[in-house]
Amino acid sequence: MSILVDKSTRVLVQGLGNTGQFHTGKAIAYGTQMVAGVHPTRAGTTLHLEGETDQSGVPGRDDTYAVDLPVFATVREAVAETGADASVIYVPPPFAADAIMEAVAAELDLVVAITEGIPVADMVVVKRYMEGTSTRLIGPNCPGVITPGECKIGIMPGYIHRRGRIGVVSRSGTLTYEAVHQLTQLDLGQTTAVGIGGDPVNGTSFVEVLNLFEDDEETEGVIMIGEIGGTAEEAAAEFVAKEMTKPVAGFIAGTTAPPGKRMGHAGAIVSGGKGTAEAKIAAMSDAGIVVADTPSGMGEAMRRALG
Amino acid sequence: MRANERAALKIHEHQAKLLMAARGIPVPLGRVARSVEEAVAAVRPLIEQSSNSVVVLKAQIHAGGRGKGSFVEHPEVRGVNVIADAVEGGPAAAEEKVRQLAKRMLGNTLVTVQTGKEGKTVNRLYLEQGVDIDRELYLAVLLDRARSRNIVMASTEGGVEIEKVAEETPEKILRAEIDPAIGLAQFQANELAHGLGLDGEVARHFQGFVKSLAEAATEVDTDLIEINPLVVTKDGKVIALDGKMAFDDNALFRHPDIAEMRDETEEDPAELAAKDAGLSYIKLDGTIGCMVNGAGLAMATMDTIKHVGGEPANFLDVGGGADAEQVETAFRIITEDPNVRGIFVNIFGGIMRCDTIANGIVEAVQKVGLEVPLVVRLEGTNVKLGKQIIEESGLDVVNADSLLDGAKKILELTERQ
Q1: A interface mutation test: which of B11, B120, B255, B348 has the most A CBs within 10 A?
Q2: ipTM of the complex
Q3: Is position B138 annotated as part of the catalytic site?
C-alpha cells in the first residue's frame, strides 16, 4: 500500500513547455505510466521522448525507453481516450488556475500542480470551484508526489528514494529531499512522499495527508516538515494529538526568519499570533511529535519516534 | 520569504489613495510633492478646494508609525504634521509653515517604530486637506489562509496598533468572509456597520465604502489593504484618512500600472540586485553568509547556523535551476556585505546537478576572490563529481558531509580568524 499514487496510476500532463517535457521524460524513466499530453494547438500530434531509464524506479525494466505520447486538445478528451486518472500541471502561472479547473471538471482523482507563482486570487477561485467535487489537488508550488518504485509525479530526483515504511509530508521542496535522503540512509525508506507546496492557498493540507497516512497499512510513521506562516502546522498538531495512532516526527523551518520582513501586521492577527516557528514547535511537541533541532536530525527524530 | 513571507509590492500612501479614489472610495483631497516648492504650491489650491483651512503634511515612506516618528536631522519634526496656521494667518501663513517643515523633511531620515533605528529617507511628501474627525475606525482586507479566502476585518478601535487590539480585546475585531463568487454581500456590509455601532446615513456610507474596498482588493490583487484610521467626519462622511496597500507580486503581470508604482529607493540595493538576477535575498545582521537552493532549506540553514551558536548574515535562495552566472552574482552579493566573515554553501541537488554547482562555485571564487573561509556542503545528483571538482580546484574550500556538519565547520573557521 501507499497513498495517492501507485503503479496503476495513469497520468496525463498539462503544459508541454521545456519544463513539462523534461520532467515527463524523467517520470517515464522512473516507470510512471505517463499516458497523454494536453495542448490546445498541438492536438493530434505525439510527443517523442526517449532516454535511459532510472533503475532506482519501477523494477524490471529495460535500460532505455522510447515513448510517443499522444497529445489531445482537452483534458476531457485525453481522459476519454486513455483512461487517465491523474494530471500533472506545468502550465505557466497566468494560465495554471484554469488548467487546474479543467482537470477538476474532467473528474480526475488527483491533480498535482507544480507551477510556481500562481496569483493568490486565482487559487482562491480554484478552491471555490473545487467545493463539492471529488478531485484532490496537491500543490501548487510543490515538488509533487512519489511512491518509490511505483510512480513519480513531479520534479523530485527519483534516485534518493527507497521503498519503506515512512510517510513524508512537507511544505518545502529541498527539505523534503533532505528528509527522504536521511530515511533512505537509515534504511527506513518511504511509503509515499508528498510535497503540499509553499503557497498560502493550496489544495491539500497537512491534516488531510496525515489522515491518509494514518489509514495506510504500510505506513508506520510520518515525518511532517513545516515552515513559518499560517496555522496549518498547529492544525496538524491538534489532529496528531486527537486522531493519530502512528508516531510522527517533524521539523519547522524559519526560527531565525526576521519578523520585520513579514508582510503587514494584520497577517499575524488572522492566525491569532500563531505563525511563528516557536509557536508551531511548541504545538507539535505538545502533541507528542518528536521535533528535530536541525534538518540533519529529521531521520533520527523519526527513528526515536518509532521507539 | 518566498510563499509564506512572499514578496509583496508596497506602494506609498498617495498612490494607494489614488487607486482608491479611482474606484469611488472616498479619500481626502491631496497633492504629492517632491520638492519644497511643489509642497508650498499645493497649499492654496488645497485650502480652496476643500474649504478647510487646515492642511496636513505627511512624509511618504513604506512604513507606519509616521505620526509619532521623528527625523534624525531635526528631532522636533514629526512624520505627519497638522498645519492650522491658515485659520488665523491666512494661506500665506500655512505656506510659510509648509516651507519650513518641507525643508526639514525632504532628503532627511525619518525613524518610526516600523523603520528600525536606521530610519528611511523621505523623498516625497503628501499634502492633504484637514478632516474634522468624529470617530476613528479600523478596516482591512486580507487573506485568511485557513479559509483560503479574503476577509474584511473591522474594528471600532481605529488609529491604534491593531495587533494590540487583537491581543487585549479580540472581541472588538469583526470579520466577514468574501466569497469569490459573490463578493461581499449587502447583509455582510450591514452586519459590519451594525457591529461598529454605525447607523442611519453614516451606516449607508460605510456599507458603500466597505463593498467598494472588497471589490478593489480582488480587482487589483492586493495582498493587504489596511485603512487605519478610517474616519467618520463631523458631517457624517466615511473617509480613508490613511491607506496602506500591498500587492501579490505573482499577479503584477496583469497590473502593469501598479507595477510601475514600485519605488526602488525604498528597497535594499543588494536585495534589488538579487531580484534582478532571479535570486531571493534578504540581508540580516549576522556574520555567516549562506547560499542555498530552495526557500525552506535556506531558512533551515539559517536556523542551523543559529543552532550551533552562529548568526546568519543573510537568507539567499538560488532557486531550483541556478546557472554559473547566478552563482557568481550570489557570491558577489554575499561578499559585498562587510559583516560577512565566512560563507556556507548548502546545496541539495535534485534537478540541479552538484557538478554544475561545483563548477559555478569554483568560477565565482576565481572571479570574485575569496577573503573569508568557505564551507561547501553538496548532496544529491552527481555529488561525488561535485566534491571532486571542488577538491581538485586547489581552492581553500572545506567540504562538509551534512548541513549540521557544515554549520559547525563554518562557525569554527569564522571564530578562528
Answers
A1: B348
A2: 0.90
A3: yes
